[in-house]
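Hey all, sorry for the wall of text incoming. These are the two entities for the joint prediction.
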Amino acid sequence: SQTIHQWPATLVQPVGSPLSLECTVEGTSNPNLYWYRQAAGRGLQLLFYSVGIGQISSEVPQNLSASRPQDRQFILSSKKLLLSDSGFYLCAWSVIPVGYGYTFGSGTRLTVV
Amino acid sequence: DQQVKQNSPSLSVQEGRISILNCDYTNSMFDYFLWYKKYPAEGPTFLISISSIKDKNEDGRFTVFLNKSAKHLSLHIVPSQPGDSAVYFCAVSRGNEKLTFGTGTRLTIIP
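and here's what came out:
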């Protein structure tokens, strides 16, 4: 069966520090991968998505970047965190057709102080 | 330009009664519609879906209705239970394009 792992569960980082969040998927090949952020009191904002190794699409301009070094690994990074980067970050995967939905990871609560 | 709207940010319903969550979309080309449920500090989990060829899909206490002419989607939960308290997101897609999520509705079931 397919599973998605996301870590860490919580993270407190000072402003200006780097960030690396990792997500891995098991039990499927060539999934579409996604990074979402849920800011306090807001909906799900798509940050990045990837349809294959090295293929990254950015949805919104921001202080973050994403990489997909392996088929089932998706990494969210920042060189210097801002206070506004605080939020709940979610990784998700899907197969084609996308209409069958996404499976989400358990999320990372990032607090930038 | 918000393609998917959930106009009620919150909803309170008495336990045992019906909860109705609504979602409006703008693009008539969307052909797959889903509902997700999210508890605090957890990832959203898939609840129920419907394709554009149907107008109703039922799964236990959950029923999703699709009104294509009105571009309106609703989720009915009956009877509502305390464990249903969560944030509910609708999501839509067209073909193989990525899902577009609504802003969410926080449902609180009052015992």
